[in-house]
Amino acid sequence: MEEKIKLGISTCLLGEKVRFDGGHKLDRYLTDTLGNYVQYVPVCPEVECGMPIPREALRQVGDPASPRLVTSHTKQDFTDPMVRWARERVQGLEREELCGFIFKANSPSSGMERVTVYDANGMPHKVGVGLFARIFMEHFPLLPVEEEGRLHDPKLRENFIERIFVYKRWREMLAAGKTLGRLVSFHTRHKLLLLSHSPQNHNEMGKLVANAKKIPPYELFERYQGLLMETLGLKTTVKKQINVLQHMMGYFKEELSPDEKQELLEIIEQYRMDYVPLIVPVTLFNHYVRKYDQPYLKEQHYLRPHPIELQLRNHV
Ligand code: SF4
Fold first, then answer.
1. Among 56, 124, 190, 194, which is disulfide-ready with 202 (CB 3.0 to 4.6 Å)?
2. In the prediction, which pLDDT does 1 show?
């Protein structure tokens, strides 16, 4: 059986009663749906750095670039113990080989963005990052990260899940050994996926791989990985997806009958008009790839970037 993707997660999202008030923030999509494909590594910064349950709520105060983490009423300052603990924890997490992290939104410890920071006058500003989340993201700058709230947006969800699946394949490729052959094979199988995010980056990565022999291996893999994660973080659009669909049609010039071609063009047009979701043309392409055993396209992760049961390309 294929190994599950390892994802870090804020513990309270799994339904563990670790919050300051003794409650949890169970997210059923994460546990019951995504949970079938991933193995979670829970992290609760506040409990793991020694705070009790229940406890006084915390907040960030002061300069948003280096805020203090204090209890809301008694103003006890937990910044230093939290930072010490977080630096050690991220070292430990390196051994877990995570492919991403899902943070609890709005938490002064775990929030990924727009965390409330109170200024000297007690005025709230949504400009902070949770203390642990900041140290985690600085330590793992390329790792896909998201917040549970944002994952309710179908496009953000699809993008995050696509990235964690790619990251897992990238990790597996590195673990098998950094050879030029493996990099070329990885790049070839992800070409259309990359194209769907950025034609420019797709070209740049193609040039990088084409010139690979002139670049020291360490630098080559570093640069490729940086570009890979940057590219996948760029939004796809209907226009970019249609570019990929039309590109794929070019591989069936000989095989498709005029009627089949017409049907494909009609469905691509329906997708362009927002009448059908992306999964519809993609399913038809998968059908032709299987029917005509198209060797290049059948290797493309674009056609199956994540399990169909996650229903990620089903939105219009
Ligand atoms: S938001 Fe973070 S610190 Fe707060 S309970 Fe959840 S995991 Fe723990």
1. 194
2. 53
**Nearest-CA residue for atom 4 of ligand 1:** 19
Whole-number Å distance, alpha carbon 26 to ligand 1 midpoint, is 11
C-beta atoms surrounding 225 within 10 Å: 14
Q: Check if 44 has its Cβ closer than 6 Å to any atom of ligand 1.
A: yes
Quote the distance between the C-alpha of residue 93 and its chain's center. 17
The 3-state DSSP class for residue 206 equals helix
Token pair 């291996």: residue: 217
107, 131, 132, 145, best to mutate for ligand 1 pocket (most atoms within 8 Å of CB)? 107
Q: Is the CB of 116 under 6 A from ligand 1?
A: no
| Confidence at residue 307, expressed as pLDDT on a 0 to 100 scale | 82
Size of the chain, expressed as the number of residues it contains: 316
pLDDT digits (tens, 9 = 90+) for 71-124: 999 999 999 999 999 999 999 999 999 999 999 999 999 999 999 999 999 999
Enumerate long-range contacts of 207-212, CB under 8 Å, 24 or more apart. 209/183, 209/184, 212/180, 212/183, 212/184
Distance from C-alpha of 82 to C-alpha of 101, rounded to nearest angstrom = 19
Q: What are phi and psi of 43, to 5 degrees?
A: -140, 120
**Which atom belonging to ligand 1 lies closest to the Cα atom of 20?**
5
Determine the distance separating the centroid of ligand 1 and the alpha carbon of 23, expressed in angstroms.
10
Q: Closest Cα partner for 100 from 46, 158, 165, 36?
A: 165
Predicted structure pTM score:
0.95
Q: Are 169 and 175 in contact (CB under 8 A)?
A: no
**pLDDT digits 0-9 by tens, 152-198:** 999 999 999 999 999 999 999 999 999 999 999 999 999 999 999 99
Ligand 1 atom nearest to CA at 13:
6
Amino acid (1-letter code) at residue 91: Q
CA dist 278 → 163, 205, 284, 310 (Å): 18, 25, 10, 14
